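Hi, here's the filled form for the chain we discussed.

Project: internal
Contact: R.S.
Residues: 135
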Amino acid sequence: MIVGMLPAAAPNRTHVDVTFEDVRNSKGLIRACMTREPRYFPHCEVDPTAHKLSIPAAPGATLSFADVAPGDYAIAALHDENRDGKVNRSLGIPREGVGFSRSPRVKFAPPSFAATRFPVGAEPVSMNIRMQYFL
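And the returned structure, exactly as it came back:
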C-alpha cells in the first residue's frame, strides 16, 4: 500500500458576528462587506476576496461572516432601503444608512481602513455597528 502525503492543515478560521444598531426601519436590506485590503475600502463590494452578505433590514439585525482567516479586516455596511445595490445620494449626501466596523463618526467622507480596522485571530469576534443616517 502506498501512503500519500496528507494535505496541510487549513489555518485556523473563525467567524465574525455583527449586530446592527440604530437601524431606522425594516425596509430593504442591510448589505455588508468585510475586506483585508485597504485599497478596496470602503468599496469592498468590488474586492474579489471580500466576504459579502445581505440580510433583511431590521432594528438589531445580526449577521455572521463564516470561514474567516486570521488577519486585520474592516467592514462597510449599507442600509439599502430600496434594494438597488448602491448608496443613493442627494447633493452628495447618502440618503440611506451607512455603518462601519468600530462605528467611527462619519462627517464629510467615509472613514479610512485604519480607523475601522479590527483584528481576527483564532477566536470568534462579535461587534456592534451603529448605522448612521444623514437625511
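Let me know if anything looks off before we file it.
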